[in-house]
Amino acid sequence: MSSLADNFFAAKERAKKQKTVFGSFQNTLDFPLDDFQVRACESVESGRAVLVAAPTGAGKTIVGEFAIYLALSQGKKAFYTTPIKALSNQKYHDLVQIYGEEAVGLLTGDTSINSEADVVVMTTEVLRNMIYAESSTLVNLGYVVMDEVHYLADRARGAVWEEIIIHLPEHISLISLSATISNAEEFGAWLDTVRGTTDIIVSEHRPVPLWQHVMVGNRLVDLFLDDTTVEETAELLDKNKDEVPDVNPELLRLRGYRGRGPRQNAEKFSRAAHRNSRSRNRHSSGFNRSGSEQHLRPFRASRPDMIEALDQDALLPAICFIFSRAGCDAAVSQCIDADVRLTTDQEAALIRAYVAEATAALDIKDLNVLGFYEWREGLTRGIAAHHAGLLPVFKEIVEALFAEGLIKVVFATETLALGINMPARSVVLEKLTKFNGETHLDITPGEYTQLTGRAGRRGIDVEGHAVVLWKPGLEPQQVAGLASKRTYPLNSSFRPTYNMSANLLAQFGEGPAQKILESSFAQFQADKSVVGIAQRVRKNERALEGYEKSMHCHLGDFKEYAQLRKQLNEAEKKSEKGRKRLEHSQAMASIHDLLPGDVIEIPRGRNRGFAVILTRAEAGHDPRPAILTDDAHLRRLSADDLEGPIVPVSKIKVPKKFQGKTPKERRDMASRLREALYENRPPRKVSERSWFDRKDRHQEQEVTKLRKQLKAHPCHGCSDRENHARWAERWWKLERDTHGLRLQISRRTNTISQIFKRIIRLLESFNYVERDSGGEAHLTQRGQSLRRVYGEKDLLLSLALEEKFLKNLDPAATAAVVSALVFEAKREEMGMLRKYPHSSIEQPIVTLVTLWSKLTEREERFNLPETSAPDLGMVWPTYKWARGDSLTQAIQNTDLAAGDFVRWIKQVIDVLDQISHVAQNDIELKAQCERAIMLLRRGVVATQI
Fold first, then answer.
1. Could you report the per-residue pLDDT of 446-483, keeping only the tens digit for each?
2. Which in 412, 594, 676, 681 has the greatest CB count within 10 A?
3. Taking the CA of residue 204 as centre, how many other CA atoms within 13 Å lie in the half-sphere pointing to its CB?
């Protein structure tokens, strides 16, 4: 019991806190703060940087909002950065409601509102660009909030976060907000190194408990035997790594798993049955299950059945994650066909009115190609899809209606888990694998946590529910492992880019720039790993001494004999490699000889089978002519698909105007291909080259010589030779491994700065960098343009601008050519152009391809990642759109979804804007780009709520 004195001092302390800025901030809130929020805000008020890592929905953004409140109270500016435009828009509207439109600004790739305001919300790249440009907007900046800082691990964009953290002036306080990560201490230690004192605030407590289930048929079954939430499960594992909570035996029975035996499980199973048989208090309707007496019928629920089961158990609204855009759209169609309706007449009328107002600006001619009518029908029923292929305004409408509680079920791809705030009562996972572009992979515990973290709305739901749909082969223990583990480390994806290197060199010089790069999180992690590797090297060296004793031979030096055996083995492998290199050279030479209409048989790879050549191979080190396979797929032929030279086996006529854009065109051409083969139509005559048969005689002689030396060695006659050889083989294998570990140590030491050095040497070769008499590197006038060019193909664009590749083009053609620098096809089906939209476009494209070929040759020479090739798949759609065609006309005969089209056009606009800023002294080019932007920014590209 507290004494009177204790109560007095506690009251005095509360009164003292009320007089602080944090105290006055708390008075503006209508809810109490959690302990981790209080601790983080107190750290911010005391002037320290802070890293806050907490689960989705825990309320970590309140710390960022306090930083803004504190900045305004001090008369300073605050920036709030987010990884995606949708989050920026959402945060902007939130802050406008608090501080008013005059006090808050918004900066994204295509939006600029009140940029000099005291509070500015922006996408992360905007802040990075400001820092490099030494923008005046940074004056009087006191606080930067980096929301979703765990994006630092993103391969494509993660480096931007590290650039900001490293380059942001020291006097600016950094507030980093992250989802739960398992190496928060490591990340915080790095922040402490580069930003000064940083407090690490970690909370793994979910304000809304999360329960795990598996849906078998139309029944929800608890994943764990006992009443166990995700948080309790993880805590159990933290205490005892080997203690995994018991999985519900009902689920184990479905796969014939007996667990620890019926007697051992009987008592727990009895308790589970009792729990399942009574109505639960977790939500109003309960699960309506009858325990162990009702046996599970193992079948996979259809999507309409799944929704009905969730609705009956009062588990809506729900997000169902399907790792496929087509799957999301198909799910909505299936629910409409099954006449699923989750809204009242009044709600449906509200939805129709909102949709009509929000889409009023859309061209009525485009509504069919947008799938508008089925999309609206789904909305009025309370069902929607959410993925990157949707038109941005459609996604915004879905988000707004879901937030209002009018949409009850959203079928979404995983991008929603990384995006805006859309919490639900339940989250459903259709499967536990996803396609990464090359193969199907199991989702990781971190991904599972990210996806299911949306279940349970704070202040609305008492608890959240994560549901995995049962299917044959589902391992309940795999699901339990995903739900239990807290293994989701944050790993750096940082690499110096050409643009980054140019900016660092210009601002700091070569030596200081290397030191800055060595302070990156990537290098920090690499250096920590070296300690463990060095221990393994010492252990291996002790083992090598023992192996050397075991292979001792009384007849001679067995180490020398083993070396001969090793050399012979390597020479034989080298001879085989030589044969394969010869085959590769033959294949490349024969590809150059192929003409449109040649029918070939591809022996291996994904293109295996018959195909017809559609275009001639372009000159270069990697000829890849366009082909059409016998199953009507457009592909590129590569030398890797061949086993030596390839010659035509038949021929057909390929019309000059053939584009292969429509499925009908491709099917007709494939039909002609099969017809030619059926008729045994002879190929055109091809002259065989004599050098195809040459062999590497020198390598064969080397193999023969080593075999003779091996037989002549004294140890060859040892009766215990093979036993010695086994120890020698172990010795060589361990020595090779140890040498590899030593190389790892040398490579991981100063790894990032070594890449920077190679980039500088490559830039020197293009005259972007020169050295003074003292050997110091400096950016040339030519290299200055690279500082203001951002993107995957930054150097290629800069080189092309030097060649004036856009000279004399009209605005539509300008946009079409620039599209080749941003577009990247999803599949290997690369865009082929037998005809350009306008004759003026051909030469700039040829210039781009020639420069790309030269650049990749240099990148190979300097051991740098190759820049991806210009892709022509958006040239026609971009040109049509810029010329005023409708959306339907622009994407006709392409595989582009409306949302993808809009996204790519916005990226074209972004690059055109960059070019216009680089071309300050070229008035004609600047006006040309600005006019192109005006032509592109219309209709669906400009429409937003």
1. 778 878 888 887 778 888 899 999 887 778 877 887 77
2. 412
3. 18
The DSSP result for 1-67, as a single string, is ---HHHHHHHHHHHHHHHTSHHHHHHHT-SSPPPHHHHHHHHHHHTT-EEEEE--TTS-THHHHHHH
Q: At what angle do helices 794-802 and 842-861 cross, to 10 degrees?
A: 120
Q: Which amino acid is at 171?
A: H
CA atoms within 13 A on the CB side of 234: 21
The Cβ of residue 489 has, within 10 Å, a number of other Cβ atoms equal to 14
Q: How many CB atoms lie within 10 A of CB 536?
A: 14
pLDDT averaged over the chain?
82
Spell out the residues 6+ positions from residue 839 whose beta carbon is closer than 8 angstroms to its own: none
Shortest CA distance to 699 belongs to which of 582, 816, 603? 582
CB 742 within 8 A of CB 565: no
Burial 911-937 (b: 16+ CB within 10 A, else e): bbbbbbebbeebeebbebbebbbebbe
- Rounded to an integer, what distance in angstroms lies between the CA atom of residue 84 and that of residue 859? 31
Structure tokens at 228: 């166990």
Q: How far is CA 377 from the centre of its chain?
A: 32
- With tokens 């004609």, the residue in question is 924
Amino acid at 897: A
Please give the structure tokens belonging to residue 275: 């729990």
pLDDT-derived band of residue 833, with 50, 70 and 90 as boundaries? Answer: low
pLDDT in tens, 869-894: 898 889 999 999 999 999 989 998 88
* Tens digit of each residue's pLDDT (9 = 90 or more) over 81-102: 998 887 888 899 899 999 999 9
Strand partners, 141: 77
- What is the Cα Rg of the chain in Å? 32
Q: What is the SS3 assignment for 533? A: helix
Top-ranked range on mean pLDDT: pick from 580-594, 605-619, 703-717, 846-860: 846-860
249 upstream amide cis, omega within 30 of 0? no
Q: What share of the chain is helix, strand, coil (3-state, %, to 5)?
A: 50, 10, 35
Length of the chain: 945
Pick from 27, 36, 82: which is nearest to 59 by CA? Answer: 36
Cα–Cα nearest to 309, from 465, 456, 435? 465
Instruction: Identify which of 318, 310, 282 has the alpha carbon closest to the alpha carbon of residue 405.
Output: 318
Q: Distance between terminal CA atoms of the chain?
A: 57
Characterize the bridge pairing of strands 210-216 and 173-178: unpaired
Torsion of CA 799, 802, 808, 813, to 10 degrees: 20
- What amino acid occupies position 295? H
Parallel, antiparallel, or unpaired: how do β-strands 173-178 and 141-146 relate?
Answer: parallel
Phi, psi angle pair for 90, to nearest 5°:
-65, -45
Q: State which amino acid sits at residue 347.
A: E
Alpha helices in 100-220 (DSSP H): 124-133, 158-167, 184-195
CB atoms within 10 A of CB 499: 21
Neighbours of 742 (CB within 10 A): 14
Residue 408 in this model has a pLDDT that exceeds 70: yes
- Other Cβ atoms closer than 10 A to 262: 10
Element (H, E) at 932: helix 923-936
> What backbone phi and psi angles, to 5 degrees, belong to 177?
-110, 125
Q: Residue 646's closest CA among 687, 599, 587?
A: 587
Report the distance separating Cα 704 and Cα 698, nearest Å.
10
